[in-house]
Amino acid sequence: MQSISEAVKKNDNKVQRILEIIPGALTWAVLTSPIWFGKLLPVWMNFFLTWLAVFWVYRAFLHTVGLFIGYGRYKKEIAIDWLEKCRQLKLNELPNADQLPASFDQLYHLILIPAVNEPKDVLEGTFMSIYQNNYPKEKIFVALTVEQKGEKNVGNTFAEFKEKYGHNFGGFFMFIHPADIPNEAKGAGAANRTWGGRHVVEELRKRNIPLERVIFTTFDADSQIHREFIPRLTYAYLTDKERQDRFYQPAAYLFHNNIWEVPTLMRIQASSLSLAILSSWVFDPFSKDTFSAYSVLLTTVIDTGYWDVKLGVDDTPFFWRTLIKRDGKFSGKEFYVPLYSDAVQGETTIKSYISQYKQLLRWGWGIIVFPIAIKGFLTNSKIKPLDKLVRVFRMLEQYTIWYTIAFLITFGFSLFHLINPSVEQTALGASLPKITGYVLTGAFILLLPIGIFREKLTPPKPKTWSVWKRIWTTLEGPLVILNMLTFNLIPYVDAATRLMLNKRLELWFTPKIRAECKKS
C-alpha cells in the first residue's frame, strides 16, 4: 500500500496546487461567514461572532501583559555590559561545552546585509551601528550583497566606509548579485542573500576561519543595531544548550528610525508591529519563525542550502525548510536588546501609503510557506505529531481569524442581521450583539496601557513640533482599529487570493528614505 509520503511525492504538483488554494479559500469562507453561515445556521453564527469578540479581548489582554513583561526585559538588558558577561563565562562549564571553542576569542560573527539601491545616509547608519558595537571588531565579518542595478551608488558608499573603518573588522566585503540569473525569482531577497552568502563563505574558507565557530546574522540595509546587540547575541548563543538547533531574534524590533516623519497610519502600523513582536515573544515563542533579522550558526545556513532562490519570500521559508530538514528540531530564542528599522516612507503621503500596501502585500505573500510546511509534515514522520498539529493550527488561525477578526467584529453582526433580519426578533439575536458591544467597549480600556508602552518605546517627539501636533500623536492610538480594517486586512487577503487563483506576485522593493531621528 502506498504511504502518504510516497503519494505526496508522486503527485507533488497536484498536492502543491491544492495546498495553495486552502488558505485563500478558508480566508474568504471566514470573511463572508455572516452571509452564508448566518443563513444556514443563524444561532451558531451568533455564537461565533460573540466568541470572536471575547477572543479578541483575551488576545488584547495577553498583548498588554506581554508588553509589560517584554518592556521590563528590554530596559534590563540594554543596561548590561554583555561583553563583560561573555568574558566572565567559563566555556568548559556551559551546557554542551563540546560544541563551543576552547576560548571566547575563537568565536566569530558574520553579518550579511542585502541591499538594492539604498541611499548613502541609510547605509552609513547601518554600518556605523555595527562599528559602534561593544564587541571586538576583528572578530566581526561584514558582507554587503548588492543587486546589480545598485552597484554604483551602493558601491561608492561601501568604498567610503571601508576606507575609513574597514581595517578594524575581520573582513569587509561587497558582492554584486547579477540580474536575470535563470531560475531565480526576480527581485527576491532570497537570491541576493544566497549569492552573497555563498561568496562570503568562500572568503572565510580562504582565511581558514572554522565555519562551525561563526554566528551568522542577516538583517535589512536600513537596520541599525544597539551597541550591545552582538555581545547579547553571543551570550544567548553561549548559554543555550540547544544552540545548534536555534535561531536567535531580537524581541525588541523597533521600526523607529523615521517614526516621526511618516504619515499617521504608517506610524500606527510601525509601532503596532513593534509592540506585537515584543509581546508575542513573551507568550508564544514556539510559533515564531525567522523574520527580517535573525541569527543562526553559519553551518545551519549551509546545511539548509542557503535560501530558496525560486521563492519570492526569503525569511519565513528559511525557517520551514530548516525545521523540516532537521525533523522538527529548530526553534527560536529571543533577546531584548533592540534592533531599529525604518517605518515605510515615500516621497509624498500618497506614495507612502502605496509603498506600505506593497510591502504588506509582499509580507502577505509569505503565505507560500503553507504548502512548504504541510508537504514537509506529510513526508517527514520524524516530526512529533503534536508539534505538527500546533503549528498547522497557528498558521490557520493567523490566516483565517487574525487577519479577518477586526472586520468581522466591526461589521459581522450588521451583515448577519441584514441577510437574516428575523434573527433580531429572537432573544438571543437581540441580546448577543449588545453583550458583545459591552465587552468591546470595556476592551478599549486596554488602549491606555498599550499607548503608554508605545510612548516609552518610541523616540522623543521633535522639539520643533507644535503642542497640538504632540497631543495628536499621543492620542492617535485608537486609529489602530482603522489600521486593522485596512493595512492589516486587505493586502493579506489580496496575497492569499492571488495564491489561491494561481496568480504570481511581482516582487517590489520598498524604497528607503531616511530622516534623522534620535532613538530611545
TrEMBL record:
Domain of life: Bacteria
Alphabetical list of SUPFAM superfamilies matching this protein: Nucleotide-diphospho-sugar transferases (SSF53448)
Keyword Transmembrane helix: yes
Key words of the record: Membrane, Transmembrane, Transmembrane helix
Keyword Ribonucleoprotein part of the UniProt annotation: no
Transmembrane segments: 18-37, 43-69, 360-378, 399-419, 435-453
PANTHER family per the UniProt record, alphabetical: GLYCO_TRANS_2-LIKE DOMAIN-CONTAINING PROTEIN (PTHR36851:SF1), UNNAMED PRODUCT (PTHR36851)
Protein name: Glycosyltransferase 2-like domain-containing protein
